[in-house]
Design brief:
Pfam families: Peptidase_M23. Keywords: Membrane, Transmembrane, Transmembrane helix. The chain has 2 domains: about 60 residues; about 190 residues, Glucose Permease (Domain IIA). Helix content is about 25%, strand content about 20%. It is built from 5 helices and 13 strands. The strands form 3 sheets. Strands 2, 3, 5, 6, 7, 8, 10, 11 and 13 form a 9-stranded antiparallel β-sheet that branches. The chain is globular. The relative contact order is 0.19.
Length: about 290
Amino acid sequence: MSIRKLAAVLSRVLWLVFLVQAIAGIFVDMPYDYWLGWLPAVAAVALGLLPGRAARQQIATAPRAAVEVEAPVTGRWSALNSPADKVPSHGTHGLAQTYAIDVTAEGAEPGEGAEPGEGARPGFAWLWPIARRPRAFPSFGAPLLAVGEATVVHAEDGQRDHFSRNSLAGLLYFFLVEGTVRGLSPARRVVGNTVVLDLGDETYAMYAHVKRGSLAVRAGDRVHAGQVIAHCGNSGNSTEPHVHFQLMDGPDLNTAKGVPFHWRGIGVPANRETFTALPAETAIRHQKVF
């Protein structure tokens, strides 16, 4: 286990200790002074800063140009946790997420054969419903497309798609319990079902939170741009069905570093920006005409 991984695991363990004693303190008197109860949290923050600083220094001394690829989805989507707004986009360089992006399907706009609000993405619920089934979201089951000519180096879809966590109670559970438990587990429990493509030139594309049982490819397959390789799901550390996409310089999430990307014809959508992605062949024809 690398020093970065060990520090991350110890940090999460300390946060768990802090949480457990904080809850226990509500019901019983703890056998030590109040201020001592904050030591695990302080130590966790300190451990969390160490690997982040080292990673930032490493990235700063070894910048890499953005790689242009096709979009991994088609249709109308919105971006979340985008590297266009901050780097690292997900608040960590761990698991090669430095330039990762999340996108969620927004459904059809009125006038595209749909009534206002029909097929729209459900909003955040403060009280009810606490959770929704994955199929309530337009992202769930959406096709995931190969972003270029590539070889499949990893593909798995055995983990379940869980209910959403897009309510107040759901988010509290997600951050205080589920996120901590998954963080202490192997990386695959964080990213859920995944597909990794080797695009060549030490560039790999990773799709996370893939739908269970939706793989259309397997390791060793050769794929072309725009080919359906799987479908969007809600496996792993996810609050709702969405596509987590990133480029990295190796196939192993524990050792790879993030690589900046640029989607052909789209760029890098900013946080909460809605965009429409065309199929790869359609986008190429569109560029030729205009």
